[in-house]
Amino acid sequence: MYLSKLFIPITKDLPAEAKIKSHQLMLRTGMIKQSSAGIYSWLPLGFKVMKKIEQIVREEQNFIGAQEMLMPTIQSSEIWKESGRYNDYGEEMLRIKDRQGREMLYGPTNEELITDVFRSSLKSYKSLPQLLYHIQWKFRDEIRPRFGVMRCKEFYMKDAYSFDLSDEEAKKSYNKMFYSYLKTFNRMGLKAIPMSADTGPIGGDLSHEFIILADTGESQIYADKNIFEINPDLYKLNDQSLQKMREDFSKVYAATDEKYKEEEFNKMVKKNNQMITKGIEVGHIFYFSDKYSKPMNCTIDDKNGKKTFVKMGSYGIGVSRLVGAIIEAKYINEVMKWPKSISPFDVVIIPSISKNNKENLDKAEKIYDELKKQNIDVLLDDVDENMSNKFKKHDLIGVPYQIIIGSKSKGNNFEFKELNSQSEILSLEKIKLKIKK
Ligand code: 5CA
């Protein structure tokens, strides 16, 4: 893509309404545009990053055997009345009437809808376990939407649901998701800490939030630094190994303020290992057994033909929130550097262009074609602007690699720079290898 053709409305001014870096940066680089309070349009640059995040989430869900489907955004109030949450959910739920006067709502989450799908589809224990997920817009009429995409009204979420015959089997599904989440966030260059958490309006008595460290986070966290030593890659996708993983995590203290107990924290964690800081919740998993299946009469026949309520859990990842959360975690010293796996482009070519000399632009175009042929997603900054402005702009856009075509690039060797490091002079072959690594 040529930068001059890209729909990227960059602004120099700091948007007054944006209080945190990610919100400022997303507005300044034209990743999003607010349409009304807490509701945003996703412009090409922001949408591209969000789609890459979505794809990683999808691949890791598929890896553990979850199946993708799609449920609607608009739901009937009937199923929410059955579960008892229609009144409980309160004003965060956006309630709508259709032309027949039927009460509908814009789904804030999907426990009821998936239970309804399940109860009319499967009846035998032989079909279990099942893991289903979708990636769909949600709406919560947040009283104070803020921080851009971090706490907004309309947001993009991956929500998965597990169905098992017994509590014991269900814990295995929970462990799989726990593992999948750690791998998912790792692939985005994030170290997410699983923390015991409250279950709030979703319910149940087992729950973990996945939190990444950031000063601007809304969650207060208390954890043992040793939690970072547990490496999810050392566990395998089988029940035994995943149970061991859960046990290893449970030995290391990590809790949000709702679950925090000072005495326990001081007893379990040595003073110099204590981490008391802020974080952003990027995922949340719940086990709630028959909380929905019972009132909604969602049963399954066990092997003796006896009807039992199916045991369920739900598992969310804030796909759109992650775009902002990753900026919060990775924006350092006025430079944004996207992790390679989700960067909007693999590399940007920055030629020094002047009115009477188009030689550098010609060279840049040749490299552009060459990289394109190798399936490298490349951005070419063909805008006629001085280099210092260009560098400032690319510090904001955050493409991790730059090929700079100026005085240091000679013949077939070019100046190559990874953001936040020194540049080096390399052949195009070596550059390709670095980008693809
Ligand atoms: N039904 C469960 C699991 S599927 C559920 O809804 N969980 S949740 O409420 O914790 O939301 C899941 C994730 O969505 C959160 O971890 C967070 O990353 C994201 N999220 C929740 N509310 C918002 C919001 N207002 N704006 C942006 N992202 C949000």
Structural class: alpha+beta
Number of helices: 12
- Report, as a whole number of angstroms, the end-to-end distance: 22 Å
Estimate nothing, just give the exact number of structural domains: 2
Question: Can you tell me the residue ranges where pLDDT is under 50 for at least 5 consecutive residues?
Answer: none
In words, what does this structure look like?
With 437 residues, this protein is of the alpha+beta class. The chain folds into two domains: 3-330, BirA Bifunctional Protein, domain 2; 347-436, Rossmann fold. Helices cover 31% and strands 28% of the residues. It is built from twelve helices and 23 strands. The chain has helices spanning 21-28, 44-63, 77-83, 85-88, 111-119, 167-187, 239-250, 262-268, 319-330, 359-373, 387-397, 428-436, and strands at 32-36, 39-42, 67-68, 74-76, 94-97, 103-106, 130-139, 154-164, 193-196, 206-213, 219-224, 254-256, 274-289, 299-301, 307-309, 311-318, 331-332, 335-336, 347-351, 378-380, 401-405, 413-418, 423-427. The strands form six sheets. Strands 3, 7, 8, 9, 10, 11, 12, 13 and 16 form a nine-stranded mixed beta sheet that branches. A five-stranded mixed beta sheet has the order 20-19-21-22-23, with helices on both faces. The chain has a three-stranded antiparallel beta sheet with strand order 4-6-5. The longest helix has 21 residues, at 167-187. Bound molecules: 5'-O-(N-(L-cysteinyl)-sulfamoyl)adenosine (5CA). Residues 109, 111, 140, 142, 151-152, 155, 157, 159, 202, 281-284, 286, 314-316, 318, 321 line the site of 5'-O-(N-(L-cysteinyl)-sulfamoyl)adenosine (5CA).
